[in-house]
Amino acid sequence: MSEAGAVLAPAASDTILAAASAAHPREACGLLLGSARHIHTAIEAANVHPEPYHQFEIDPAVLIAAHKAARSGGPQVLGYWHSHPNGLAAPSDTDRAHASGDGRVWAIAADGAISLWLDGPNGFAALSYSAGDG
Predict the structure, then answer these.
(1) Which pLDDT score, from 0 to 100, does residue 2 have?
(2) Which of 13, 69, 103, 128 has the smallest C-beta neighbourhood within 10 Å, fewest atoms?
(3) Looking at the whole model, is its pTM more than 0.90?
(4) 95 in a domain, yes or no?
């Protein structure tokens, strides 16, 4: 993914927003799958963090399965998504502390909207995107 932008498929957006709504007031989370700059699919994963009202941790089994599928020719793991029940669609201090600078995309759902962020070596940078399937 590049800072020039991304494409977020409507189905992926719908999955994220529905899961965020259903989990509220807990944080929902999952993976972003696709290729190049195109996020085709969002997978919901269990939030296994002991404090799901304030933080998230993607179920490791879901993460491992997605990486195995990618190595076998499936869609690539482009990044992660989670919700902010507090309504702020920007990386929190906790998000910044857990970021790895690996260049993956973080999608944050809040108040019925999604923002995308690139987890770069110098921290998060806003990532523009358009809705579309390709």
Answers:
(1) 38
(2) 128
(3) yes
(4) yes
- Whether 1 has a pLDDT exceeding 60, the answer reads no
**Does some domain include residue 23?**
yes
CATH number at residue 16: 3.40.140.10
Could you tell me the two tokens for 56? 């998230």
Supply the range of the domain harboring residue 48. 6-115
Give me 114's structure tokens.
Answer: 């999604």
Assigned domain for 51 exists: yes
Annotation says 51 is catalytic: no
- The string of DSSP letters for the chain reads -BTTBEEE-HHHHHHHHHHHHHHTTSPPEEEEEEETTEEEEEEEE-B--S-TTT---B-HHHHHHHHHHHHTTS-EEEEEEEE-TTS--S--HHHHHH---SS-EEEEEETTEEEEEEEETTEEEEE-EEE---
Q: Is residue 124 part of a domain?
A: no
Catalytic one of 3, 27, 44, 51: 27
Least confident of 3-12, 48-57, 90-99: 3-12
